[in-house]
Amino acid sequence: MAAILPPAMLGILGGGQLGRMFTVAAKTMGYRVTVLDPDPQAPAAAYADVHLAAPYNDPVALQTLASTCAAVTTEFENVDAEAMRWLGDRVPVSPSADCVAIAQDRIAEKAWINQAGLPTAPYQVIRTEGDLDADLSACLPGVLKTARLGYDGKGQARVATVEEARAAFAAMGKAACVLEKRLDLKTEISAIVTRVSHAQMAVFPVAENHHAHGILDVSIVPARVDPPLAALAQLMATRLADALDYVGVLAVEFFVLEDGSLVVNEMAPRPHNSGHYTLDACLTDQFQQQVRAMCGLLPGRTDLLSPVVMVNLLGDVWKEDGAEPNWSVLMEAPNAHLHLYGKAQARPGRKMGHFTVLSAKVDDALEQAEALKDTL
Ligand code: ADP
Ligand code: MG
């Protein structure tokens, strides 16, 4: 396809913080943006040229995207794959509906990861109560995860025994699940690849990720792992993207086990929270890459310009009376960058923003980031 150039109109399904940062990147490059998001207050709406406030499968809204946009992408995996297929028949859509359908279903996702020759945690598909009668010893103690609609640790239960697995399956409404062995993690890392074709790929430096209550808390770049291990994660991410014939930005999460081996946890067919550091610390950021890939342009260079630490700001940081955190110290730090997503309501666990700290030594950046968070 011929490259799509500014001031073409680009469409995105979803107008949350990822859609907002995509919109800013696209607008900065001179594109126009149409956002489809039912929420009238969607964070991306503040920047978009057009906000279609309608359900994701609304025929009129989809028709508008198809007839006014040069290309369409998505900010999240839980879009209606059928709606994406319908769009894909009319306008270039990346990633493809097929790739999004795989990423939104843990069962298909794990099968694809294994098929690409990459390791996952031992797992068993649990579709019915009868599946819990099988020998599950290889997956216990484990984590029962719903196949669909899980995020930020939601739709998951830690189970030690078959009895606990049965109770958790019932509590999840007997929705299709995977039972996954609980692994001893040394740490977690992620690799984000931008792929236009086999010959046109770029991978960002690997991030080391720390979670709190199932939600990403801090990303540290460069990851404090052996460089060959980080290189292997990058290679695995490109291999997975190739296996899927993926077009767009693909984030791959990994577990680093106590014995130093690497296991793929899951993937996201879009820019990722653990890639927000690229906004401030890379030659090209992950949202610029999303724009470039959907427009058929070469991925930009991913050089890390400085060690960096990213800290998520959840609604928990806001005061109980709704008052803002005290931003003064953070805003005066000359090597820190605050990003707020423009969400009116702060709720516990809600991603409201993030900040980064850049420093010549990653340990110094981490120490300073932790100290800055304490001032909020
Ligand atoms: P989500 O879609 O919510 O991000 P994940 O499968 O990535 O779901 O799980 C969230 C976090 O829970 C992981 O980043 C990891 O810290 C922990 N976790 C998930 N599965 C396992 C496992 N099999 N063994 C150990 N920890 C796990
Ligand atoms: Mg995850």
UniProtKB/TrEMBL annotation:
One GO BP annotation here? 'de novo' IMP biosynthetic process
GO cellular component assignments: cytosol
This protein's UniProt keywords:
ATP-binding, Ligase, Nucleotide-binding, Purine biosynthesis
Q: So where does ATP get bound?
A: 106, 145, 150-156, 180-183, 188, 211, 265-266
Q: In which pathway does it act?
A: Purine metabolism; IMP biosynthesis via de novo pathway; 5-amino-1-(5-phospho-D-ribosyl)imidazole-4-carboxylate from 5-amino-1-(5-phospho-D-ribosyl)imidazole (N5-CAIR route): step 1/2
> What reactions does this protein catalyze?
5-amino-1-(5-phospho-beta-D-ribosyl)imidazole + hydrogencarbonate + ATP = 5-carboxyamino-1-(5-phospho-D-ribosyl)imidazole + ADP + phosphate + 2 H(+)
Q: Name one Pfam family in it.
A: ATP-grasp
Database matches in PANTHER family: PHOSPHORIBOSYLAMINOIMIDAZOLE CARBOXYLASE (PTHR11609:SF5), PURINE BIOSYNTHESIS PROTEIN 6/7, PUR6/7 (PTHR11609)
Q: Which family does it belong to?
A: Belongs to the PurK/PurT family.
Descriptive protein name: N5-carboxyaminoimidazole ribonucleotide synthase
The taxonomy runs: Bacteria, Pseudomonadati, Pseudomonadota, Betaproteobacteria, Neisseriales
